[in-house]
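Q: How would the structure tokens look for this protein?
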Amino acid sequence: MKKYISSKNFTLILINLIPLFGVFYWGWYAYSIILFYVAETLLVGFIHVIKMTALYFMNSKRQSALSVSRNNSGVRGAGLIPFFIFHFGFFVFVQMMVFGGFTNQNLLKVFPVLFTDTYKYALSAIFLTKITVLIAELFWDPDSDKKLPDDVFFEPYPRIIVQQFMVILGSWFSIIGNSIIGYLIILIVCKTVLDIGFANFDFTKFKKKAD
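A: Here is the predicted structure in token form.
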């Protein structure tokens, strides 16, 4: 239970409370939350590109990072950054297709809505939170000097998978009950639980068992 009491989990809960606040105080509905989750996916990817780039320039020639044993194959080092952008872009494309399929809306046309009204404040809050966490990871994490892009490449993928599922679930809710608060709360609670669950899952143990 103690592992769930951490600044990382607190940050996730705080971020997930934003759409809940939007439902109760800003009149958001399922359509709004889907847009918000797609935008959050983009932010996750953008921040991670910054993180990988920073780690490469900070540690690519640092002995403490180079001395770490890595069983990597294929693309590695700086090459992982454009590879991540391409791979991540595919996930975003899938979300756009799901959004369009359920709502008959062109995401590129409705996306500017997120930079108006209450959405821009919500996204700004998430951006500032993630940037703060990133700075803490780069400069206050005692192991940051040992990490390269190879070590953090897969970090955002659990959250991206959660986002994919939430966009699908949210799109379905937008059809059966776009403004029913009960559905919206279920959507937000599901995402919060999955976010925390994936964030605390030990993938190294899972990989060892698989091997």
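Confidence is low (pLDDT under 50) at residues 206-211.

Residues 2-66+74-199 form one domain.

Upvote if useful.
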